[in-house]
Amino acid sequence: MELEAELREQAICDPLTGLYNRRFLAEVLRRELARAERYGHALSLILMDIDNFKELNDRYGHLAGDEALKRVAKALWENIRRVDYISRWGAMSSA
Fold this sequence. Notes:
By secondary structure, the protein is mainly alpha-helical. The chain has one domain: 2-Layer Sandwich (Alpha-Beta Plaits). Helices cover 56% and strands 0% of the residues. It is built from 4 helices and no strands.
């Protein structure tokens, strides 16, 4: 059972940031949209982008970019409710 849980986590989480991945976000959005429609509740979705992220990678390297992503992810995790989801939409770095 422990191995199964670990495999599930690997399948739904971004390995760099620990945030949920795009595949899991699609699953959650389908479920939450259906629930909001069924009960007539509002649903909020926030998309954010890190300004000049490509330039950060180009100037300081992908390790610095990865560190920036980890710090943003940590700040987001520390400031959400337990019922909220955070997902990394962007592609993984090819470096």
